Here is the input.
Amino acid sequence: MLLISGAIGGALIAILDVRISTFVFNSIFTIPNYTPALGYVIGIGSAFFAATILAFIFGIKEKEKENASNEKAQDNTTTPKKDQMVSSAVVEIFSPLKGEVVPLEKMDDPVFSTGAMGKGIGIEPTEGIVFSPFDGKVVDLFRTKHAIGLASDEGIEILIHIGIDTVKLKGKYFEAHVESGAVVKKGDKLVTFDVQGIKDAGFQTVTPVIIANTSDYLDVLPADSKQTNAGDQILTVIK
Here is the structure.
C-alpha cells in the first residue's frame, strides 16, 4: 500500500513538472521551494489520499480475516462440538432390578401413577435384588428398608420403592447391604428382598423407579422395552 500510494504521488509530481533548485530537507516549511508549489501539494496530497483509501479497503479485509481466525480458534477451544453437546445433554439410567417393565401410570398407587413423586417407570421384579443404577451415593435408606434414595455423581436423584404399601411390613422380608451416606458404584448390591414372602403377605411387589428431581430436567423418558435385566438402560434423562 505504501509503495502504490508513493508511486501515484511521484507520478503526479513528474507529470506536473515539479522542480526544486536548492538542497533542503523535506517538510511542510520547504513546500514554497518547489516550483510549482501547487503541483507539489497535489502530488503529496494524492499520495496521502491514496494511502488512506488503500489502508481502509485492504486493512478492513485483513482485520476481518484476523477476527474470523480468532473466532475460529476460540470456537475450537471453548465451544463443544455438536456430538459432545448432545452426549452431555442426555443421561441414561440403568435398571436396578430384573423383571417386567410396567408403565408408571398403570400402577395402583396414585402417588406414583400421577407422577406426583416424579417421572419414571415400574418394574415387577422376578428377582429380589436391587442394584445401584449408577455411580453415586446413598442419600436415604428408609428404616423399613423397603425404599432407598440415591444421587448420581451428576446430581440425578432416584427413588427405588420396593412394592406398594410395603412400609407396613416394617422391614420384614427386606435386607439392606448399604447404609445412608455410602458411596456406591453402578452394579453394587443395595437391598435384597423376598419376592414371594411379600406377595404371600398380601402386598404387590411392583417397584417404582422414580427420578425424584424430575423438575430439574427437560424430560424423563422410559425405554421402549417390556422386560429388563439389572444393568439394562431403562430411563433417559434429558438435561
